Amino acid sequence: MAEQITLQINNISKRFPGVKALDQVSIEAGGGEIIGLIGVNGAGKSTLMNILGGVFPQTEGEIRINGQEIHIKSPQDAEKYGIGFIHQEPVMFRYMTVAENISVSRLHGRVNYKELNAAARKSLEQMNCDIDPRKRVADLPIGERQMVEIARALSSGGKILLFDEPTASFTDKEKLRLFEVIRQLKKTGACIFFISHFLDEVEELTDRTIVLRDGRKVIDGKTADISRKEILQNMIGGEMVRVDNEEERKFEKVLMRVENLTAGDKPDHVSFDLHEGEVLGIWGLMGAGRTEILRALYGLDKADEGTVSLDLGDGRGLKVIPFAQMREHCGYVTEARHDDGCLLPWSVWENMSAPNLKNYKKNRLFLDFNRQKEESSEYCKRLNVKTPSIYTKVSTLSGGNQQKVIMAKWLMKKPKVFFIDEPTRGVDVGAKAEIQRMVRELAASGSSCLVVSSEIEELSAVCDRVVILNRGRLTGELLKKEIDKDTLMHLCV
Question: Among 112, 169, 181, 250, which is most buried by a count of CB atoms within 10 Å?
Answer without folding.
Answer: 169
